[in-house]
């Protein structure tokens, strides 16, 4: 199936000859995800404070601390190295699946770049971007009062998030500034958004999907079949 990519559509503009450029399309594969998907909140500077406010069935998934040798024998991925030690903070795929088996959404503390390791394994996190602008910077401060980043750093971080989201091979959800005015309202918007994303068919870029199959990875979720 052909599907417009939202972020690419925004780049469609008139050519120098004042003719309208064609909107790009990409081929996508529908995948039905039945069990609760893990959740990734962005930007990271706000994610920790927001995660602490989320109710059940949302639970933060704390990484394990493992040695470098042990990480080579486990099935998962390294979040970050521990400075000065031969150890890393590590997330196992098994821990994510165990949380889903309990009908819970695990909330992941990671950068979007790390999420590619999940997608490679056929695990598709729900990605929510809490958009940060000059108009809502004070609300963001109320959400994360201990955040030591300057306003400029918060805005720059959000711009980097927006750029990195273009590499995600399926749709993410953006929480616009005008949809919340206080932390509790943001929690309500986020939990509602996660519920909506969970109920949707996930449309995966076919180029990514084919690459996974060619590399020997199998879907953990069921691709949707269509009858002619």
From TrEMBL:
<dbReference type="InterPro" id="IPR027417">
    <property type="entry name" value="P-loop_NTPase"/>
</dbReference>
<protein>
    <recommendedName>
        <fullName>Guanylate kinase-like domain-containing protein</fullName>
    </recommendedName>
</protein>
<dbReference type="GO" id="GO:0005737">
    <property type="term" value="C:cytoplasm"/>
</dbReference>
<dbReference type="GO" id="GO:0043123">
    <property type="term" value="P:positive regulation of canonical NF-kappaB signal transduction"/>
</dbReference>
<dbReference type="GO" id="GO:0050700">
    <property type="term" value="F:CARD domain binding"/>
</dbReference>
